[in-house]
Specification:
Layout: E1 3-10, H1 13-31, E2 36-40, H2 45-51, H3 57-65, E3 68-73, H4 88-98, E4 103-109, H5 122-125, E5 129-135, E6 147-150, E7 156-159, H6 166-181, E8 186-191, H7 197-210, E9 217-222, H8 223-232, E10 239-242, H9 244-257, E11 265-269, E12 275-279, H10 296-308, H11 313-328, E13 331-332, E14 342-343, H12 346-358
Parallel strand pairs: 1-2, 1-3, 3-12, 5-10, 8-9, 8-10, 13-14
Antiparallel strand pairs: 4-5, 4-11, 6-7, 11-12
The protein binds 1,4-dihydronicotinamide adenine dinucleotide and magnesium ion (MG).
GO molecular function: 3-isopropylmalate dehydrogenase activity; magnesium ion binding; NAD binding
Cofactor: Mn(2+); Mg(2+)
Subcellular location: Cytoplasm
């Protein structure tokens, strides 16, 4: 059966990297007879300029119809003065919440060819392959009540509510365990259950979920220790599962272990495994229009889409192998280029991946 893929190029380097990712997607579509139907829509600043809102109803309708969404990145300084509700990022956040994309997958995988780019010593990160599973639609980022209030004594007080229901914890737990099954079968759940009641419940539910996955090992770690362990001995982890805020922080720290933001893909999944796939980086206005952006994070996001939504692991693996092949050839965009490497443009990198796919 044909699958619908919605392409949202976004702003600044978004369309540049997306052109390369679409080339790769179309190539695997024909190589693996995937029967994909590609459609395009506007999101973010591009949508704001064209329609007055960052998430037009037409885009939302197409997104609901799609099996998977591939997004470039949105935003840029030209929209800084737009009021909060209509800013480009609101389009992205709106899409995540409308589609209930609660499961955010952020792999931190270090290509050995790029080991020198890591912030850690090569021996600590060589072969690093961890997957952070972050709850994306709950926790303190969304809890009510929230705000800034003025107390009787005139002092102002800011407050947010940290809340997770059992069902929210359970569904992110099941996602993490089922992903661990496809990997090294180890889940580390990160909480702060020595201080926060929310995460006492979190830990309890994770234990419960673990019973359904006897082949997967569950361990627990406090978030402060997890932060320390991530930079001390990151290879001890396989899958890390955690809430929205801890996941936000830990996934950015883990990203830096791999060196370049231009290499990191991500997925955000709903309960049926449909999802939105995008690079971890933003729209990089500082390098837009120069043809130098690294398209590999977006190309690797296509691989994640094939693995997690379209259930085509062999096509996903082919893309990942092609990326590795291109790095072996010494081809590098500016952001990952070191002495002795061959510097290539955005589209030359895309073409090199196509050639490697073919061979
Ligand atoms: P950024 O990730 O766009 O850029 C940070 C630095 O990394 C820049 O120096 C940029 O040139 C470089 N960089 C990023 N992606 C690259 C790539 N593929 N190849 C080579 N170099 C790359 O983050 P920044 O500058 O904080 O944000 C720029 C805009 O992007 C803002 O409007 C921000 O709101 C938006 N943004 C959007 C996101 C999204 O759509 N998911 C995520 C993060 C930021
Ligand atoms: Mg972040």
């Amino acid at each position: 059966m044909s699958k619908k893929i919605l392409i949202l190029p976004g702003d600044h380097i978004g369309p540049e990297i997306m052109a390369e990712a679409v080339k790769v997607l179309e190539r695997v579509d024909s190589l693996y007879s995937l029967d994909l139907q590609l459609d395009h829509a506007l999101l973010g600043g591009a949508a704001l300029d064209a329609t007055g809102v960052p998430l037009p109803p037409e885009t939302l309708a197409k997104a609901r119809e799609a099996d998977a969404i591939l997004l470039g990145a949105v935003g840029g300084p030209e929209w800084d003065k737009v009021e909060a509700a209509r800013r480009p990022e609101k389009g992205l956040l709106g899409l995540r919440s409308e589609l209930e994309l609660f499961g955010n997958l952020r792999p931190a995988l270090l290509y050995p060819q790029l080991a020198a780019a890591s912030s850690l010593k090569p021996e600590l990160v060589a072969g690093l392959d961890i997957l952070i599973v972050r709850e994306l639609t709950g926790g303190i980022y969304f809890g009510e009540p929230r705000g800034i209030r003025t107390l009787e004594n005139g002092e102002r007080q800011g407050y947010n509510t940290y809340v997770y229901s059992e069902s929210e914890i359970r569904r992110i737990g099941h996602l993490a365990f089922s992903l661990a099954r496809q990997r090294d079968k180890r889940v580390c759940s990160v909480d702060k259950s020595n201080v926060l009641e929310v995460t006492v419940l979190w830990r309890e539910i994770m234990e419960e979920v673990a019973k359904d996955y006897p082949d997967v090992t569950l361990s627990h770690m406090y978030v402060d220790n997890a932060a320390m362990q991530l930079v001390r001995a990151p290879k001890q982890f396989d899958v890390l599962v955690t809430g929205n805020m801890f996941g936000d922080i830990l996934s950015d720290a883990a990203a830096m272990l791999t060196g370049s933001i231009g290499m990191l893909p991500s997925a955000s999944l709903d309960k049926d495994g449909r999802g939105m796939y995008e690079p971890c980086h933003g729209s990089a206005p500082d390098i837009a229009g120069q043809g130098i952006a690294n398209p590999l994070a977006t190309i690797l996001s296509v691989a994640m889409m094939l693995r997690y939504t379209l259930d085509k692991p062999e096509a996903a693996a082919a893309i990942e192998a092609a990326v590795s092949d291109v790095l072996d050839q010494g081809l590098r965009t500016a952001d990952i280029c070191a002495e002795g490497d061959t510097r290539v443009s955005t589209s030359e990198m895309g073409d090199a991946v196509l050639r490697a796919l073919q061979s």
